[in-house]
Design a protein that fits this description.
132 residues; alpha/beta; Glutaredoxin; 7-stranded mixed sheet; 4 helices; 33% helix; globular
Length: 132
């Protein structure tokens, strides 16, 4: 179960209205440099160029204040949801990641960015742009 920014419960299936969507998963336990790098890449390559309802951010923070700071720091306003920490299988790796999701709710095209090889992130975003 997800929680909207105004604390309303939201089913994941209800946000997959226009398939597919891409979900970027962040946690306060993630590498902070990795978060910064991925958010900046997302904003420059996808969030500012495509319909925001196709890119969703799932965030895990221990408290609401952390979510608010994250949102304001990166100037993100739409499609941000809170999710319990370690509720998804890959959350234990403690780096942000992105995946494609459609109405089957089976994660596809999972990508874990490598801060030391930013070209891989560019290649993944090229892939996303081709399939939008």
């Amino acid at each position: 179960m997800l929680t909207s920014f105004d604390d309303n419960p939201v089913l994941l299936s209800s946000i997959v209205k226009q398939s597919p969507i891409y979900i970027a998963r962040f946690s306060e336990d993630n590498c902070h440099v990795c978060i910064d790098s991925l958010i900046m890449s997302l904003k420059s390559r996808l969030i500012n160029q495509y319909s925001n309802n196709r890119i969703v951010l799932l965030l895990s923070f221990k408290n609401k204040r952390g979510l608010i700071i994250f949102k304001e720091q990166f100037q993100l306003y739409d499609n941000i949801y809170s999710i319990d920490p370690y509720s998804l299988y890959l959350d234990s790796i403690e780096v942000p990641y992105i995946f494609k999701l459609d109405s089957t709710l089976v994660p596809q095209s999972i990508f874990l960015p490598y801060i030391s090889i930013p070209e891989l992130t560019d290649d993944y975003f090229d892939y996303i742009e081709k399939h939008f």
